[in-house]
Amino acid sequence: MTVLVAPDKFKGSLTSAEVAEVVAAAFAEVAPGEPVRQLPVADGGDGTVAAAVAAGFQRIPVRVSGPTGRRTTAYYALRETVAVIELAEASGLHRLPGGRLEPLSASSYGTGELIAAACAAGATQIVLGAGGSACTDGGAGLLTALGARLLDASGAPLAPGGAALTELSTVDLSGLPEVDMVLASDVDNPLLGVDGAAAVYGPQKGAGPAEIAALERGLTRWAEVVGSAHATTPGAGAAGGVGFGVLTGLGARIRPGIELLLELLGFPAAARDARLVVTGEGSLDTQSLHGKAPVGVLRAAGGTPVVAVAGRCLLSAPEWREAGFAGVYALTDVEPDEYRCVAEARSLLAGRAAQLARDFSRAIPA
């Protein structure tokens, strides 16, 4: 029976693999006879490809267009016929040149190029993580890269970005590939309206009121021309409307991100062989209780005790106990300054993980 270490990232300080490494090292020091298995996890956002690679997938580089068209190298993960693609790798905010936000013209085209490359490499199932998008183009760019044709009234190809969709006249989806597409997302927003892609997520991408209105008009026109059957589907608004694009153009299914990724990474089987599971994330809070990685791990652990490490814990002890955690070890327990917790995350986590190992190495029968 093992200790299974399955954390998400500490955003801004440690990757999920680094968190797992630190925790495993603490067990090796404190309880050297304790078998430990590392299985970093992700919920479909940034870190998804890295988690897949840590679980045995191959990391594949591809030259693609970033959200503004500038060429960049992005990565996807491949194992046999399954590819894991992280939308942010090609079309994320961190790919914007100089960090300059481009809410009206940013495109998901590069993510479509990643999907095309994966299909060319033999993938028949694509798992697409939807977090971190820089664009609000309804997935139009993604579909264009895969063979869709979007034309204006004069028959010319449409310019990239969500605002240009207001000029859309005709769409031809006949060139799209047949692929089993699963969108990993916990977002339930529709495409349009006050809870839609532009209104809710546009501000994160630099859109003010005028830009949000322009993007809403573009997405409305996109749905009118390509077909609005999925416009109200929960999750259609994910990643600036990419959810709508892959639902409509590729017949995608949407599944909760952490549930899908845990299944893909082989977590349920690993948990059956564990006597303790250690999970975690940067901030364990009320949002965590609504399906983020630690609670997803808790639910999938099948009754195995689960302990969390975190940068900070904003839940009271009764709250995390009621959720089902056997313990929580936060960096802010020993260092109240959150800036220092980020800057010194590795050393602080090593100390908290050592305490965890001391507390639990003999507490739970092998």
From TrEMBL:
Family annotation (Gene3D superfamilies): Glycerate kinase, domain 1 (3.40.50.10350), Glycerate kinase, domain 2 (3.90.1510.10)
Keywords (A to Z) from UniProt: Kinase, Transferase
GO molecular function, one term: kinase activity
InterPro entries, per the entry: Glyc_kinase_flavodox-like_fold, Glycerate_kinase, Glycerate_kinase_RE-like, Glycerate_kinase_sf
Superkingdom of the source species: Bacteria
Pfam families the UniProt entry points to: Gly_kinase
Family affiliation: Belongs to the glycerate kinase type-1 family.
PANTHER family, sorted: GLYCERATE KINASE
Protein name: Glycerate kinase
Organism name: Amycolatopsis rubida
